[in-house]
Amino acid sequence: MAKLTAEELLFRKIEEKVKRAIFEYSLIANGDRILIGLSGGKDSLALVDLLGRRSKIYNPRFEVVVAHVVMTNIPYCSDAEYLKSCADEHGLPFIIHETSFDASTDTRKSPCFLCSWTRRKALFDIAKKHNCNKIALGHHQDDIIETLLMNITHQGAFGTMPPRLKMDKFDMEIIRPMCLVEEKELVRIAEWKGYRKQIKNCPYESGSSRSDMKEVLARLEAINPEARYSIWNSMSNVQQDYLPQKNK
């Protein structure tokens, strides 16, 4: 048997992390039909690969549909044929959906929020139309930790994007199967597999504070190489008795 390359071993490690997330957080059950939101970035392309392969393993038994939402008022160009070929590689149905948003309709919300919400709503509509009961998004562990840091810093709230979120309003669940996968692992896999980066020139992207939180996380890991795991574990180890409690 040929010896596996470092990249092949890493991909297997990532697959094991996805498997662990599926079972630890009850992300997928027998009979699920899951819609993957494929943006065209490395994370969502990896998610198509990972769930496409996982759907061929019958524990649990589930189906996958892939959707790419085009935001017509953002100047970027998606290679639809390439994205379709990524779905075709695993025999998955592929859907393109066009929509847009008007940033002037709600000046209380940032354009990034409005764009994200419009995309999310489009995914809910597509999922319902194609009889999906869950939507899988390509957020990785760094995304989730950075969101936690953003909420603590800017919102005064201890919360983030959970691995599994039930959206009662839409009768739908959002799952994040790559919640235990580190971004640096996905960067290596993207290079190995040669994922094609989609062209995007978003006029609002520079206004995001996420890049600041990436630097904060990198600094914390420089102080303590295990910092990300401590932060991750802290979210399920909230010691309320040792936190300020307001009088009721």
What's the gist of this structure?
This protein is of the alpha/beta class.
Annotate the secondary structure layout.
Layout: H1 6-24, E1 32-37, H2 42-54, E2 62-71, E3 76-77, H3 80-88, E4 94-99, H4 111-129, E5 134-136, H5 141-155, E6 164-167, E7 172-175, H6 183-193, E8 199-200, H7 210-223, H8 227-234
Parallel strand pairs: 1-2, 1-5, 2-4, 5-7
Antiparallel strand pairs: 3-8, 6-7
Helix pairs in contact: 1-6, 2-6, 5-7
Keywords: Transferase
GO biological process, one term: tRNA processing
GO molecular function, one term: transferase activity
Strand order of the largest sheet: 4-2-1-5-7-6
Could you give the order of the helices and strands?
HEHEEHEHEHEEHEHH
Radius of gyration: 19 Å
Give the number of DSSP strands. 8
Tag the structure with descriptive keywords:
tRNA(Ile)-lysidine/2-thiocytidine synthase N-terminal domain-containing protein; 248 residues; transferase; transferase activity; alpha/beta; Rossmann-like_a/b/a_fold; six-stranded mixed beta sheet; tRNA_thiolation_TtcA_Ctu1; single chain; two-stranded antiparallel ribbon
